[in-house]
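[Automated response] Your request has been received and processed.

Submitted sequence:
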Amino acid sequence: MRLEEVIKAALGEVKADLVILDGELVNVFTGELEKGDVAVKGDTIVCVGDVSDHIGKDTVEVDGEGMYVSPGFFESHIHIESSQITPTEFTRLCIPHGTTTIVWDPHEIANVMGVNGVREVIREVRRLPINFFIVIPSCVPASDPRLGGSGGVIGVREINELKGEKEVIGLAEMMNFPGVLGLDADVVAKLKAAKEFRVVDGHCPGLSGRELCAYIAAGVRSDHESVAGSEGVEKLRRGMFLMVREGTASKNLSDLLKPIVEMGLDTRNCLLASDDKSPEELKEGHVNFLIRRSIEEGVEPVKAYQMATLNPATYLGVDDVLGGIAPGRRADIVLVDDLEKVHVEKVIVGGKIAAEKGKLKLKIEDFRYSDAMRGSVHVKQEVKPEVFAVKCEGNKAKVRVIKVEEGSLVTGEEEAFLPVVDGMIIPDPSIDVLQVAVLERHRGTGEVGLGFIKGFGLRSGSIASTVAHDSHNLVVVGADWRDMAVAVNRIIEMQGGICVADKGRIMGEIPLEVAGLMSVETADSVIKKRRKAFNAVRRLGCTLHDPFMTLSFVSLPVIPFLKITEKGLIDVKTQKIVEVVKR
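Generated structure:
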């Protein structure tokens, strides 16, 4: 609206489109609950207090009696790709939970599709009804290209190109903190390119003392990877914004909030973030769940709401438009019937009723992806079982084995003696030593890295996936080569996804045709297929809580100790390729 119209609407000379009456306002500016009404014109809050003069014959009246009226909730940091659904479907799910603003780091899309992929998802979120802010992935590729390649590169040139997109608000998590401290030329150049941004997100688990000071002095303003409470307190004391994370894979909220509550520290620099969210958990709750968990950990209720509203708006530099219920702010408003349980009754997005009693009221059209985005698996020919054979002389071979552990991204290194038949080493599921392979899928190079792995427990069959952090090549683990080939070829046919095969048959599959990371189907459909695939893996003998998540990280050569990429086995400590067979 024009400024003149806003002023007239605030004075009541122009009647409101919508009013909320008799609610209890969650005043995030003063930290109190305040009885009052709200008047909205267009997408803007124009008056707070007594709005009786703002009601006309066409004004929609929302009964706020017995309700707490909060600003819309912020998701301060997430990789939507981890939900395996599109941003459009994610929006459909999160609005009924009260989420009206999302800060998305499209790190996974960037690793597969590069700057063009980031631009395409920006076009998608631009048409959605909630606020999307994009932070430019800072570490693409995420590891030394000599140890494994991704499909995209985000350098200084790409950062400068993306600055022109109005949704772009900053630089995403600077994972390469050793590069910051070591004055790596490329890392420093990216930080310099991001100097004009208010938002530069961090990623510095365990960093402390003078090294933390150097990292902050470089311009990094937040961190979402703190684990210990003392670590979070130190970062707050040094002026960082602390993202209190509670996602599907990583849960740090309790450990981080405990000392903050016990010490009575100011929470104005605390933000709530998921980082990742499975579709199953997203169906049950989003930021409203994080607020509730914060209150359960002893945070005063209004402060918990501040952590999901005004605090992130302040960090992002948009607190003049978002994050509070006040004149001139965008009308993103959530009505809850229980302040502490954060049960969302009604959601208003941009002045329109968007959800009621957990049901979406808005119609959100699907986005049509480009052929490039839906055709990202470039393995040129049908994969034969013999591709997975490690050749060796003799009757027995001593091999390096990747050891996965439940609930950990760290993988150990063990040894095993395996039989050699016709010059090829055979996996042995009887001792839980399976074959593992990574196939390059971005440029059709034909590269295949081979190794052995322990901890999946498969008695037979195979699991394959194009969700393989951070390069997202095609990773497969199996008890025999035939089923590995069956699973891999099905994924090539689907153009991305997850597949479980056994005895030559497909036992479960999750098509992820958008960059090999996300499905164009509904969340309910994805959840159903995920459940079927999980059950199939368990019938094959796997006892891991989330075998697909575990598999997705065995190819990330920046987390100790032994990993695998399309280049081969990687000793993470030395950052060198090592032989499968130990001489």
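Summary generated for your ticket: The first helix runs from residue 3 to 11. The CA atoms of residues 288 and 342 lie 6 Å apart.
If you did not submit this request, please reply to this message.
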